[in-house]
Amino acid sequence: MPPATAVDVHAHYLGVDLSDVTDCDHDAPRLVVDTDEGGRIMLGDKIFRVVQRELWDVDERLRRMDEASLSHQVISPVPVVMEHAWRADAEPGYAGRVNDSIAAACNRSGGRLRGLGCLPLADAEEAVAELSRCLKLGLRGIEIGTRIGDFDLDSPELDPLWAACDRLGAAIFVHPVFGGQGVVRRSGQPFDLGLGMLADTAIAASALVFGGVLERYPHLRVALAHGCGAFPWAYPRLRTAAAMHSVGDPAVWDRLVRRLYADTLVFDDEHLRLLVHRFGVNRLVLGSDAPFFPDQMRKSMASIDKARKSGVLPAEAGPYALAINALEFLGLMDEM
Questions:
Q1: Under a CB-based contact definition with an 8 Å cutoff, are residues 41 and 78 in contact?
Q2: Phi and psi for 33 in degrees, rounded to 5?
Q3: φ and ψ at 179, to 5 degrees?
Q4: Cβ(256)–Cβ(220) under 8 Å?
Q5: Which of 1, 184, 199, 238 sits between 20 and 30 A of 192, alpha carbons compared?
Q6: What residues form DSSP beta bridges with 30?
Q7: pTM over 0.85
Q8: Can you give the pLDDT at residue 180?
Q9: Cβ atoms 120, 86 nearer than 8 A
């Protein structure tokens, strides 16, 4: 692995080698490349999203990383792909093909890309088997949603997943699902993206902390996208409410919160101050959501520099320190 000086843990990938999946699974997300520069993610016959070449072209991605001074990036499935993989009616083997595609992209990157996979979570036994295979492929763990189907993250039905991740040392990246739809009472934009995703992520973090997941599985390494959503702001009120109405130890909750990793993609440098306060500087990891926000790799790197200069972040919280955090999250410290 080349020396890690700046690691982006929140980026997505969809390969052209999945373009034929709808031969057997009409609803499966697939990539259609229209021009040298762009393409479309299709859901059946409907356009889900117009995308740029950086999504599937490893050389183009590495070029953009160079422009942003990123040494490494962690690629995970486009969330709609991850969500399809856990459906009971998905084509058998779909998650495996996604994971093979991500592993192949990492192998083409000269060690600069690391991958997270997805799982067929409708069947616990198949999911655990695919998790083990992911790690054998060289992927560092998995991306999961803030909800999995109808289950919140502290649902007993997910205990086999947590137990396997705890046992195997798999990193877990939690990403909002359904574009934030259905979480707040207003639908559409800007409410789904602007509020729904943040609320959904806060519910997921609350389930991990107050639902006992982190306490039951002490070796889990979990990072949450978009600065852990609204959870850093909501935690004091959640803690107060839990102490009033639950049986539990607030000191334990505080300790569990500081086991979570949060990415820096918050769109306002001042918000980074609270992330340090809530989680600790050793739990911040760089995030860009590349390639879905224009030029965000460069902007995410610039925000760290600006926040340090303004005093929002401590001086020691530079890209290299955040890279160390990312390697710890991924279980890669032995490759330093």
A1: yes
A2: -95, 120
A3: 60, 20
A4: no
A5: 238
A6: 42
A7: yes
A8: 57
A9: yes
Give the burial class of 316: count Cβ atoms within 10 A of its Cβ; 0-12 exposed, 13-18 middle, 19 or more buried: exposed
- Give me 49's structure tokens: 């999203």
SS (H, E, C) the chain: CCCCCCEEEEEEECCHHHCCHHHCCCCCEEEEECCCCEEEEEECCEEEEEEEHHHCCHHHHHHHHHHHCCCEEEEEECHHHHHHHCCCCCCCCHHHHHHHHHHHHHHCCCCCEEECECCCCCCHHHHHHHHHHHHHHCCCEEEEECEECCEECCCHHHHHHHHHHHHHCCEEEEECCHHHCCCCCCCCCCHHHHHHHHHHHHHHHHHHHHCCHHHHCCCCEEEECHHHCCHHHHHHHHHHHHHHHCCCCHHHHHHHHCCCEEECCCCCCHHHHHHHHHHCHHHEEECCCECCCCCHHHHHHHHHHHHHHHCCCCCCCCHHHHHHHHHHHHCCHHHC
- Retrieve residue 222's tokens: 């979990």
- 18 pLDDT band, cuts 50/70/90, is confident
Encoded amino acid at 288, one letter:
S
Which phi and psi (to 5°) does residue 265 adopt?
A: -80, 80
Q: CB–CB of 82/145 below 8 Å?
A: yes
Q: How many CA atoms lie within 13 A of 201 on its CB side?
A: 29
Q: 291 preceded by cis ω (within 30°)?
A: yes
| C-alpha to C-alpha distance for 113 and 111, rounded to whole angstroms | 6
CA–CA separation, 187 vs 166, rounded Å?
A: 36
Q: What is the pLDDT of residues 162-195, one digit of tens each?
A: 999 999 999 999 999 876 567 777 878 888 888 8
Tokens of 46: 């409907």
189: left (phi over 0), alpha (psi -120 to 50) or beta: beta
**Strand 171-175, strand 221-224: pairing:** parallel
